[in-house]
Amino acid sequence: MKIIAITSPKVVDEDVRIINTLLDNGVDSVHLRKPDSDIDECKKLLAELSATKRAKIVVHDYSELYFEFSLKGIHINKNVTTLPEGYSGIKTRSCHSFEEVKRYKNCYDYLFLSPIFDSISKVGYKSAFTNDELLNASKVGIIDEKVIALGGITLDKIQYLRELNFGGVAMLGSIYNVDALNRKK
User: Fold this and answer.
1) Theoretical Cys-Cys bridge with 87: which of 68, 83, 101, 135, CB 3.0 to 4.6 Å?
2) The domain spanning residue 71 has which CATH number?
């Protein structure tokens, strides 16, 4: 099961330390999602990471950084709607319904499906799926190794998601909340 971290929306001083720690401790990849930061802030952050760590980064907001920093891939979203010419990295996308998953599954390396649970990082962003809907989607093969659970993911929910046949989990809020608690110790 893939473990994917998603960065907070704004570049912060701790980002390099957090990304290094996550990748050193078994996170498969980090999605650099910085819609509240400009490209120069993202470049500065990436320049502080080793080439080995950058090779595990999927970029969300500035696809041109893929080539400049030899990143792992590009995530398609409202800010990046097409892949650049000559692109050969992994392709990912966010989905918010089972219909979207069915439509895009064969076009991408993996898809985020959200929100599975009530969001930790987005206040008021509630789960979009009932337990029965998730069980049925798993049973009919909509949820499989190419679908990554996102939204309200905490460590205690991973076994349940594994049983539903998700290919992995993506976390933002729980990772940054745990990191904030660790800094206070």
Assistant:
1) 83
2) 3.20.20.70
Quote the CA–CA distance of 146 and 167 in Å, as a whole number. 6
Give residue 149's identity as a one-letter amino acid code: A
Instruction: Please state the domain count of the chain.
Output: 1
Q: Express each pLDDT in 24-56 by its tens digit.
A: 988 999 999 999 999 999 999 999 999 999 999
C-alpha distances out from residue 150 to 14, 55, 144, 153, 169, Å: 23, 22, 14, 6, 6
The H or E element that residue 76 is part of is strand 73-76
CA Rg, the chain, in Å?
Answer: 16
For the chain, the maximum distance between any two Cα atoms, rounded to a whole number of angstroms, is 47
Measured distance CA(40)–CA(70) in Å, rounded: 16
Domain encompassing residue 114: 2-184
What's the pTM value of the predicted model, to 2 decimals?
0.90
Mapped onto helix, strand or coil, the DSSP state of residue 116 is coil
123 with 173: CB under 8 angstroms? Answer: no
Give the residue from 81, 107, 112 showing the smallest Cα distance to 4.
112
Per residue in 58-110, pLDDT tens?
A: 999 999 999 999 999 999 988 888 999 889 999 999 999 999 999 999 999 99
Can you name the residues that pair with 168 across neighbouring β-strands? Answer: 2, 148
Task: Specify whether the CB–CB gap between 168 and 150 falls below 8 A.
Answer: no
